[in-house]
Design the sequence.
């Protein structure tokens, strides 16, 4: 299986990085982004390891938690798509698309 990041997910990573840099430091932000990416890189080997997203309850729409962030993904045949990433205490972003 391969891993693909949607443009939306990449934008969310950048937003997280900029926010953390602005409130702490570039080093802390870089470490966080690396941990989010590293966590997502396990998904092609174990696509069912995440829980079903409770707001939508779709078998192929899942999420894993890394620190306080939710990494939402879907998978089809031979590809895992990272769809969005956001802080877990927030409601699911209404504007985020859940398609790849």
Sequence:
């Amino acid at each position: 299986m391969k891993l693909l990041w949607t443009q939306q997910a990449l934008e969310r990573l950048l937003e997280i990085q900029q926010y953390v840099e602005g409130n702490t430091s570039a080093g802390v932000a870089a470490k966080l982004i690396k941990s989010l990416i590293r966590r997502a890189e396990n998904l092609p080997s174990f696509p069912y390891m995440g829980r079903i997203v409770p707001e939508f309850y779709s078998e192929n729409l899942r999420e894993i938690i890394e620190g306080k962030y939710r990494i939402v993904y879907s998978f089809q045949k031979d590809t895992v798509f990272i769809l969005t990433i956001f802080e877990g205490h927030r409601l699911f972003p209404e504007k985020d698309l859940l398609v790849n």
Notes: The first strand starts at residue 2 and ends at 5.
